[in-house]
Design brief:
Blueprint (H helix, E strand, L loop, with lengths): L38 E3 L11 E7 L1 H4 L2 H15 L6 E6 L2 H10 L4 E4 L2 H10 L4 E15 L12 H17 L12 E3 L5 H12 L13 E3 L4 H11 L2 E5 H6 L2 H4 L2 E6 L9 E8 L12 H11 L5 H7 L1 E2 L2 E2 L10
Protein name: PBP domain-containing protein
Pfam family, one: PBP_like_2
Organism: Hypholoma sublateritium (strain FD-334 SS-4)
């Protein structure tokens, strides 16, 4: 298989070309679908449309796999039981960078994101008034069963990435017989998501910059959301980094072709910890509270209430496994 072309820094097309597992081709200008509208949840009350959307939240993976919907429906039912008229909650799909931008612009009331440094910058800018540690997720390094980079269980994540780099470079210089094994490649979403930022931090920590000029031919840039990227990595026998929730929610036929080589823990110093924080716009110097402020505030507080939303979060499961754990005692 010929090396993949790099995706140019400037992408003129905003329309994503579907990935075809039949030929393994990945378009040169592949891009995420543009943000257009949102998914609307009503808690099972069909007449909630009469009142319309009253709360807006942005997020990526947790929304894709159903946690945001579980939150929204449970919260609406909770509020109706307290006497509130039925209403709708809107979820806007966006990775952490896009979700923070939606929050800063006032498009959404809150954002669930996974990049603490960027979140703190947004708080400092005055575009958000509150931030809380919502739950702990983890990243996982996954790849093909044939394991062309010869990763071993006792390897650290840094050693694993180093092996992928070395094996990838060697396979570029001397391509393996495809009938024996696939070449070593790493799939990056290359999209400014929390996952992309995390993998970049790991590559930088081992002194590598595979996306820089002259870029590494084993570094496959595929700009899609997690579940689409995982399907591509599975079809092409590539390693990739993914949040564990997205891995567990992937179709069995996708996971069957891959295995987990390293997964994060809940330890604060684990490089593969994926901390989820909820940021609330609310009333700030840059964002006066809107007419739905009371409901938005109630939703924000309900999500992190141990007797309410946290029960939904901790009980959320895929493939028979719970996906998230409690946040640690925290001052933020």
């Amino acid at each position: 298989m010929a090396p993949f072309d790099i995706i140019e820094p400037r992408i003129d097309s905003t329309e994503a070309t579907p990935f075809s597992a039949n030929n393994g081709a990945c378009p040169r200008t592949a891009n995420k679908p543009p943000l257009s509208g949102a998914s609307i949840y009503d808690g099972g009350y069909s007449h909630a449309r009469e009142r319309g959307v009253r709360v807006r939240i942005a997020n990526g993976t947790a929304g894709q796999i159903g946690l945001v919907r579980a939150w929204a429906d449970s919260f609406i039912q909770y509020m109706v039981n307290k006497g509130e008229a039925p209403f709708q909650v809107a979820w806007y799909l966006g990775d952490s960078t896009a979700s923070l931008a939606l929050l800063a612009s006032g498009t959404v009331d809150m954002a669930l994101t996974y990049v603490p440094s960027a979140e703190l910058q947004l708080m400092e800018s005055g575009a958000a008034s509150r931030r809380v540690y919502a739950f702990r997720d983890r990243f996982a390094l996954v790849g093909p069963h044939c394991n062309p980079a010869a990763l071993e269980e006792q390897d650290s994540v840094y050693s694993m990435f180093t092996k992928i780099v070395n094996a990838g470079n060697a396979d570029v210089e001397c391509p393996p017989d495809p009938d024996v094994r696939p070449a070593t490649r790493f799939l990056s979403r290359c999209d400014k998501s929390a996952t992309n930022i995390k993998e970049s931090q790991i590559f930088l920590a081992i002194g590598q910059l595979p996306w820089g000029h002259d870029y590494s031919r084993w570094y496959h840039q595929f700009i899609r959301f997690p579940r689409e990227a995982l399907r591509a990595a599975a079809a092409l026998s590539e390693y990739t980094l993914i949040d564990y929730g997205a891995w567990l929610s992937a179709p069995p036929c996708v996971r069957a072709g891959m295995r987990v080589y390293k997964i994060g823990s809940d330890a604060a110093d684990d490089v593969l910890l994926n901390p989820a924080h909820l940021l609330y716009r609310g009333a700030t110097s840059k964002a006066p509270d809107n007419e739905d402020g009371a409901l938005s505030t109630a939703f924000y507080e309900w999500i992190v209430d141990p007797a309410a939303g946290m029960q939904v979060t901790l009980g959320f499961s895929k493939a028979g496994q719970t996906m998230y754990s409690n946040p640690p005692p925290s001052k933020d």
